[in-house]
Design brief:
Immunoglobulin-like, Beta-galactosidase, Chain A, domain 5, TIM Barrel, 3 domains, globular, 18% helix, 11 helices, 729 residues, ten-stranded antiparallel sheet, alpha+beta
């Protein structure tokens, strides 16, 4: 494997040009004529700055209405022009090589620092620091962290068949609850096009996009590390005209925050650090871009996992089940029987018995209920620890329910909705430092008082409850920026305060899966929809967004057991971070046949899969699955980056039209032999990597909601040994 390469070239020639190089990704920007603009990019490693000609082949900023590399509007003034160059610095940090451009505006006394981080992958991180140097407040009304001209292609029609699109744009199709991960491609029209979430659309659309140039092959991928409102804007000007200059297709874009103005009020002397954009450029299609993004997130974005480990096998008990003392202790025993490593108690541990369905009303009173647990939570925790498992609790930490003592004691902690009333979900106003400090200490107290090894966050606030505002100096400011920067700070401090506690993120399912928040968590719940066949589409799509060890899926709860064979349901979990809720009903006999397959699957996960999953490459053989109930085959593969082992999951979804499918493995090394195990038959064959990658594997599945799991592991013998490729045992 080649070593990571990063470099930043600063060139002075009629201004300043920056060339950012990471692996084979090259991205260039120029300060010229008072504008800081994008200047070009490629995924072949060639630096435009190295061109010896006096006019390097960079993008012409005058070809784009908005060529600026960022967009900033303060007090109604667009600061796209009249920037003065203040300097450039290059430093090596723990995350990678960082370049910082400093600009000062002549329109307003404002300084902007443009930060770019390179980590050796083909994805870079970008954020801004904006400083108010005036003696008064400034109102922020528009902020695009990364923007400008992206590509320009002369005589673009000659590259394509008649009627074919020049670009296609991929993103999560749906924004509502239970529809996370429905990735779909759309032809990009010669027009403006925008994809939004968490303000103009609902909160369950993960903030990412993939963009492919179908003529010349460049593949862009982007994620925004931000939990508030956002929009991805594209403007493709590919209209044809009489003059040659009219036959050039020009594409520009903007990654921006989206909220009612002002999004932030900057006090005199105050500096605002923006969320980070993660932007990459590759050749080779969707999965190559996805795996570059995963490598980037692992290398320089996510915090290291607690206890140095990913891929814990979790189980727990929640308000879908009996939660009294005896039922909880039986659930602990059931968890140990299936091989679980973490046991947690979900919503309701603070409520009296038989009130589990009112868990939201007393959120905020984070003390166990003695009627539910007469011997205290210590008894439950001790039982969990005696079985060799870790113990944890759930909190909907950012809310205080209307029937809670916290609600009565701290009405001033509630955020204000845009109608001037209390927000509908009773969300805490984390833009209020006192409320934020109170919440942080509540979490710390729950962890310390109950000896928690595991903490599960939830956030049950839908639109428009989370759209709140605060009056500052007579101006109503949107809360997104202050709220989420306070929240990120809380979890950054809690992770440092409790380095051995495993933090899990959830937000009414996948309402906040963005890497701005999930960077502080070991893994994240990506949906509350567990029923097949949509469950496959969600896992498939969310592993496009997040590395598989950060994606948490459930079997046995939230109605997931209503559709799909046991094998279908459990195998889907093996590709990610598994949570099992499959214990025997309270007071009933264990189903030993079901238990055998559960234990078999858990054993495969522990002994074969999780050894490579935290660094695995993911291959989405069927990436575009966005139907409400997807049909046909769904196929997912993960493999160790060195090709030493991997697994293939073939899932028959709804309405089967074909019983057989041929799959060519993408993670196998063509120069090696493999032991290939078909889990349905529990039989193993020896097959060459060349055959797996080229001839492929035939899989037959008779009936909807069935599956096959194929495991492959390299054999340390040369091809052509006496046993021969293709022998079975």
């Amino acid at each position: 494997m080649s070593q990571a390469f990063t470099d930043i070239i600063l060139e002075k020639n009629d201004g300043y040009a920056l060339c950012y190089r990471s692996d084979k990704m090259v991205f260039e920007e120029v300060w010229t004529g008072g504008r800081y603009v994008t200047a070009g990019c490629n995924a072949s490693g060639f630096a435009l700055a190295s061109n010896p000609l006096s006019r390097p082949p960079r993008l012409n900023p005058d070809d784009f209405p908005l060529p600026q590399a960022f967009q900033l509007e303060l007090d109604g003034c667009s600061l796209g022009y009249e920037w003065e160059w203040q300097g450039f610095a290059k430093t090596v940090t723990a995350r990678g090589l960082q370049g910082t451009v400093t600009l000062a505006s002549k329109l307003l006394p404002v300084t902007v620092q443009v930060h770019t981080l390179l980590d050796g992958t083909q994805v870079f991180s970008r954020w801004l620091e904006i400083t108010n140097n005036t003696g008064r407040n400034l109102n922020l009304s528009r902020l695009a962290i990364l923007s400008g001209g992206l590509q320009s292609l002369d005589r673009w029609q000659s590259y394509l068949r008649a009627g074919d699109p020049l670009y296609r744009l991929g993103y999560m199709e749906h924004s509502h609850w239970g529809m996370e991960g429905g990735f779909a491609w759309h032809d990009l029209p010669s027009a403006g096009y925008s994809v939004a979430g968490r303000f103009r659309r609902d909160r369950h659309r993960h903030p990412m996009f993939a963009l492919e140039n179908l003529a010349t092959g460049e593949f862009f991928i982007c994620q925004l590390g931000w939990s508030g409102g956002y929009a991805f804007d594209f403007d493709l000007d590919a209209d044809c005209g009489v003059a040659d200059s009219h036959n050039i297709a020009r594409l520009s874009f903007a990654v921006r925050l989206d909220a009612p103005a002002p999004m932030r009020i900057l006090a005199p002397g105050e500096t605002l650090a923006t969320p980070e954009v993660h932007f990459g450029l590759t050749f080779g299609g969707l999965d190559e871009a996805v795996n570059q993004m995963h490598a980037h997130l692992r290398r320089s974005v996510f915090l290291p996992p607690a206890r140095g480990k990913h891929c814990w096998v979790e189980t727990g008990i929640g308000p879908e089940f009996y939660m009294h003392r005896e039922a909880t202790l039986q659930a602990v025993a059931n968890a140990a029987a299936i091989g679980a490593e973490i046991f947690f108690i979900d919503a309701g541990w603070y409520l009296p018995p038989d009130q589990e369905d009112q868990w939201w009303l007393k959120a905020g009173d984070w003390q166990y209920n003695p009627d539910r647990y007469p011997n205290g939570l210590r008894e439950i925790r001790d039982a969990v620890k005696a079985q060799g498992m870790l113990f944890g609790l759930w909190m909907d930490a950012e809310r205080i329910g209307k029937d809670s003592q916290a609600y009565a004691s701290h009405p001033d902690f509630l955020a204000t909705a845009y109608d001037g009333q209390e927000n509908g979900a009773q969300i805490l106003d984390l833009a209020n430092p006192a409320a934020a400090a109170w919440m942080e200490e509540q979490i710390a107290r729950v962890i310390e008082d109950n000896g928690c090894d595991f903490f599960r966050l939830d956030y049950n606030a839908g639109y428009p409850s989370y759209l709140t505002r605060t009056c500052r100096d007579g101006i109503w400011e949107n809360d997104f920026l202050r709220y989420y920067q306070a929240l990120y700070g809380i979890y950054d401090r809690l992770r440092r305060r409790f380095p051995d506690v495993i933090f899990e993120n959830c937000a009414g399912g996948g309402g906040r899966t963005d890497v701005g928040l999930t960077r502080y968590f070991n893994h994240t719940w990506v949906t509350d929809w567990q029923k097949a066949p949509r469950s496959f589409a969600i896992t498939n799509g969310m592993t496009l967004a997040l590395p598989p060890e950060h994606v948490d899926r459930l079997v046995g709860g939230q109605g997931g057991y209503l559709t799909g064979s046991l094998e279908f349901q459990l195998r889907l979990l093996l590709f990610v971070q598994p949570t099992l809720s499959v214990g025997t009903p309270f007071g009933e006999e264990t189903n030993t046949n079901q238990l055998e397959f559960i234990r078999h699957s858990v054993s495969l996960y522990k002994n074969f899969i999780r050894a490579f999953l935290p660094e695995a490459r993911v291959y989405h053989h069927t990436p575009d699955i966005s139907e409400l109930q997807p049909k046909g085959f769904g196929i997912l593969e993960t493999a160790a980056p060195d090709g030493s082992r991997g697994m293939l999951g073939v899932f028959q979804l709804a309405d089967p039209q074909n019983r057989e499918v041929l799959v060519r493995l993408r993670g196998a090394d063509i120069a090696r032999d493999y032991a290939v195990t078909f889990d349905n038959a529990r039989r193993t064959c020896r097959v060459s990597g060349y055959e797996l990658a080229n001839a492929g594997i035939h899989v037959r599945l008779d009936g909807a909601m069935t599956s096959e799991l194929v495991l492959y592991e390299a054999i340390n013998e040369a091809i052509g040994a006496d046993e021969g490729a293709g022998s079975c045992r």
